[in-house]
Design brief:
The chain is mostly helical and about 550 residues long. About 75% of the residues lie in helices and about 5% in strands. It has a 3-stranded antiparallel sheet.
C-alpha cells in the first residue's frame, strides 16, 4: 500500500524523502571533503612553489599557455576513457621511470659499487628474473615458484659468501661492462617478452625489438661521450630504468588507435611550458621563487639557512625504506594469506587455532603505530642472542634494516587482511573446475586463484604502503635520525626519512623553515607517494583486465 511518499515492500516501509535526504547529505559531505582536501593541498603547493612572489604577468602567461590547454585536454579526455587511460599511463610511467632512474643511479653507481651489484646480480637478481621469464613461457613448470623463492632466500647468502671473487670479476669488467651484462641484456629479454606477450607482436618482431636495446646502448656511446655530465654507466642505467617503462607506454599507446590522442598531453605540457618561458622572458614578468627546486632535491639539509636546505638524504632513505618494506610485506603478507585461506585446516584443534590467528591479525590492524615502534625497539634493536663465540645484538639503532622491518610489522596485518578478502572473492567453482581438470592445489592457486585475486591484493598493498611512507612514530622509537647529511650506505647504515626531516624542520624558529621548506618537503613526499601509487595502479589494472 502506498501512502504519500512511503511505499510498502517486502523490506518494510520505504520513505522516498529519507532516500533523497540521505543522497543529498552524502553528496554534500563528499563535496566538502574534496574541497577541504583540495584547499589544503593548494595551500601547501602555494608555499612550496613560492607563488606569492610571482607577478600578475607570470600568472596570465602560464594560464594562457599551459593551464587552459591542459584543462581543455582534460575535458576532451574525460569523454573518451581510452584517451584518459593512455594519458595516465604515459604520465605515470614517464614520471616513475624518471624517479627510478635517479634512484638506480644513486644506489648502483654512487652508494654501491658496480662490482658489488654484479655479485648480487649473479646470485639473486639474475636467477630470479630468469626463472620468472621461464615460468611465463612454460606454465606447466610447477617448480618455478619454489625456485624463485629459493633464489630470493638463499641468493643473498651465496652472494655474501662469494662476494670477493664475484666482485673482483665485476671490477675487471668495469661499470659500463657490468651494467651492459646485468641490465641491458636482461632488459633486452624483457622487451622481447613484453612485445610478444603484452603487445601482441609476433615472435620475429619481438626478438627484433629486444635486439634494438643493446644496439642502441652501444651505438649511442659516441654521442654520450660528448656530454660531460653523463657517463657511460649512467647512460646504460637510464636507458633501462627510464627507456623501458616509457618505451612500453609509448608502444602500448601506438598500438591502440583510440589512444593516439593521448600523445597530445606531453605535447601540450612541453610546448606550453616552453612558450610560457619565452613569453615571460620577453615581457619581463616577475617569476616565483620556489622552495622546491633542483637544489632542494639534490642537497643535504641545512639547519641555519633555509635557502640552502635540501631533502636529498631523506629522499634516498625513504626510497630504501619503502623498497624493503614492499618486499617484506608482499612476500610475507601474501604468503600468510594464501596459507590461511588455502592450506590451513578449518576443523578441529588446528581449525580453532586458525580462527584465533585470524582474529588476532584483525586486532593487530588497529594497534597504534607507536606500539609497533616499541616492538621494533625491543625485537630488532635491543635483542641479544648468543651464537657460539659471537654475541649478536640486534640490527642497530636507526638502520635501514631495523626501520624497514619495524614499518613492515606495522602494515603487515593490513596486507594480510586485504589479501585474504581478495582470495575469498574467487568463486569456489573455479577451484573445483581446476581440480576436476587434474590440477594440483599449487597449480590451482598459481593459475586460478592468484591471477583473479591479484587486483584486490595490490589494492590493499598500495593503501598499506601509502600509510607506511608517511609514518613517523615508529621511526622515532627505533632511533631513526631526524636530520642526516648523507644518504644510507647500505642495509646496516643509518638513515633518515622524509617525514622525519619534515618533522625536524617544523620546529625551527625561522618562518622560512616552518612554511616554505616544510611545504616543499610535503610536496616532495606527495610526489613520491603519487608516483609509486600510479605505477602500482597501472599494474593492478593490467591484472584486473586479464582477470575479467
Amino acid at each position: 500500500m502506498a501512502t504519500g511518499t512511503q511505499t510498502s515492500t517486502e523490506f518494510g516501509e520505504v520513505s522516498r524523502i529519507k532516500g533523497i535526504v540521505f543522497k543529498t547529505v552524502a553528496f554534500v559531505a563528499s563535496i566538502v571533503g574534496i574541497v577541504a582536501l583540495g584547499a589544503l593541498l593548494a595551500y601547501v603547493f602555494w608555499d612550496a612553489m613560492g607563488l606569492d612572489s610571482a607577478g600578475v604577468g607570470w600568472y596570465l602567461t602560464y594560464t594562457a599557455t599551459l593551464l587552459i590547454p591542459l584543462l581543455g585536454f582534460g575535458l576532451y579526455a574525460r569523454a573518451r576513457p581510452a584517451v584518459a587511460a593512455g594519458a595516465f599511463e604515459l604520465f605515470s610511467l614517464t614520471l616513475g621511470g624518471l624517479m627510478l632512474t635517479v634512484a638506480a643511479v644513486i644506489v648502483l653507481d654512487i652508494i654501491a659499487s658496480p662490482a658489488i651489484w654484479f655479485a648480487y646480480f649473479l646470485t639473486v637478481v639474475g636467477p630470479t628474473l630468469g626463472l620468472f621469464v621461464y615460468g611465463q613461457y612454460d606454465r606447466g613448470a610447477t617448480w618455478v615458484g619454489l625456485g624463485m623463492l629459493g633464489a630470493v632466500v638463499l641468493g643473498p647468502v651465496v652472494g655474501t659468501l662469494a662476494l670477493g671473487p664475484l666482485a673482483g670479476l665485476g671490477a675487471m669488467l668495469g661499470g659500463p661492462g657490468v651494467y651492459f651484462l646485468s641490465l641491458v641484456l636482461p632488459a633486452s629479454g624483457v622487451v622481447a617478452f613484453l612485445a610478444e606477450d603484452r603487445l601482441g607482436v609476433g615472435r620475429r618482431r619481438s626478438l627484433l625489438a629486444g635486439a634494438t636495446l643493446p644496439v642502441l646502448a652501444i651505438g649511442a656511446v659516441p654521442v654520450v661521450d660528448t656530454v660531460p655530465v653523463v657517463s657511460r654507466s649512467v647512460w646504460l642505467v637510464a636507458l633501462v630504468m627510464f627507456g623501458l617503462p616509457v618505451g612500453f607506454a609509448v608502444a602500448n599507446t601506438v598500438r591502440q588507435r583510440e589512444r593516439w590522442a593521448a600523445f597530445a598531453l606531453p605535447v601540450v605540457a612541453v610546448v606550453g611550458f616552453l612558450l610560457g618561458e619565452t613569453v615571460v622572458g620577453a615581457i619581463g614578468a616577475t617569476q616565483p621563487s620556489p622552495w622546491l627546486d633542483w637544489q632542494f632535491v639534490t642537497s643535504p639539509p641545512a639547519i641555519t639557512s633555509a635557502a640552502e636546505a635540501g631533502l636529498y638524504p631523506a629522499i634516498i632513505g625513504s626510497v630504501f625504506l619503502i623498497a624493503l618494506v614492499s618486499v617484506f610485506t608482499f612476500v610475507f603478507g601474501v604468503g600468510t594469506a594464501i596459507y590461511l585461506e588455502e592450506y590451513a585446516p578449518s576443523n578441529g584443534i588446528l581449525g580453532a587455532t586458525t580462527r584465533m590467528v585470524n582474529v588476532n591479525i584483525s586486532n593487530l590492524a588497529g594497534v597504534p603505530s607507536v606500539v609497533y615502534g616499541l616492538l621494533g625497539l625491543g625485537v630488532f634493536v635491543n635483542i641479544n642472542a648468543q651464537l657460539g663465540p659471537v654475541t649478536y645484538a640486534g640490527f642497530g639503532v636507526g638502520t635501514v634494516l631495523t626501520a624497514s622491518m619495524t614499518i613492515s610489522l606495522l602494515i603487515l596485518p593490513i596486507v594480510v587482511i586485504s589479501a585474504q578478502e581478495a582470495i575469498r572473492s574467487v568463486p569456489d567453482s573455479l577451484r573445483q573446475a581446476s581440480y576436476g581438470m587434474g590440477a594440483t592445489r599449487w597449480q590451482t592457486i598459481r593459475n586460478v586463484v592468484l591471477p583473479r585475486s591479484l587486483p584486490g591484493i595490490l589494492t590493499g598493498t598500495i593503501l598499506a604502503l601509502g600509510r607506511a611512507i608517511g609514518e613517523t612514530a615508529p621511526l622515532i622509537m627505533v632511533g631513526v635520525a631526524t636530520t642526516k647529511f648523507t644518504p644510507p650506505s647500505g642495509l646496516f647504515g643509518k638513515l633518515t626519512a622524509m617525514p622525519m626531516q619534515i618533522y625536524a624542520w617544523a620546529f625551527q624558529p625561522s618562518a622560512d623553515f616552518r612554511y616554505g621548506v616544510v611545504a616543499a618537503g610535503v610536496v616532495t613526499l606527495l610526489i613520491v607517494l603519487l608516483t609509486m601509487n600510479s605505477v602500482a595502479i597501472l599494474v593492478r589494472n593490467k591484472y584486473q583486465q586479464e582477470a575479467n
